[in-house]
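Structure (tokenized):
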């Protein structure tokens, strides 16, 4: 991983951000940047029968959804373009956000900050893609804050005028919906 990045270009660094209380994954408990949770329930529905088992597994419901991400970034002053990628819909207990490490390392070595957005907790639901898209916009709000936070690891290092949203399968659809939502004059918090 690091050797390939070194040969390609810039040295690559890695960190995670999130709510810091993930019941299932250490990388989202031991985060470098702590984020607030958000209420995604207006944009995704969950049948009551599934709600309890999901809350037992995750430790939260859709009213307290985390803003979790894995970040690969260039070791340099920037500012660098930002890329957010979100996985598709699959078994929510089969975490797929780590699967974009190869792409994160490559893009970071070429001068991009790349985040693999964790939306595993919304997987397996139907009529949830507005929620996926809305969560992407919440990640962008978090990145604006990261860029503006004095003393933070990304202070002034993000080129907020050069942003790419992409995804696989349902994640690709979410990226397109997020772009459409972003043109609206108002969307609920």
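Design, position by position:
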């Amino acid at each position: 991983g690091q050797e390939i990045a070194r040969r390609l270009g810039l040295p690559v660094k890695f960190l995670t951000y999130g709510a810091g209380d993930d019941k299932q994954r250490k990388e989202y408990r031991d985060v470098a940047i702590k984020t607030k949770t958000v209420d995604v329930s207006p944009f995704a529905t969950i049948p009551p029968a599934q709600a309890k088992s999901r809350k037992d597994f995750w430790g939260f419901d859709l009213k307290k959804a985390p803003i979790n991400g894995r970040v690969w970034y260039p070791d340099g002053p920037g500012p660098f373009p930002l890329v957010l990628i979100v996985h598709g819909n699959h078994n929510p207990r089969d975490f797929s956000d780590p699967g974009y490490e190869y792409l994160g390392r490559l893009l970071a070595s070429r001068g991009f900050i790349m985040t693999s957005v964790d939306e595993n907790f919304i997987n397996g639901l139907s009529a949830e893609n507005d929620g996926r898209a809305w969560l992407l916009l919440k990640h962008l709000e978090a990145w604006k804050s990261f860029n503006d936070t004095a003393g933070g690891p990304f202070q002034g290092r993000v080129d907020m005028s050069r942003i790419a949203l992409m995804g696989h399968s349902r994640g690709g659809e979410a990226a397109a919906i997020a772009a459409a939502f972003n043109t609206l004059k108002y969307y609920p918090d």
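Reviewer-requested clarification: The chain has a mean pLDDT of 90. Residues 129-148 form the longest helix (20 residues).
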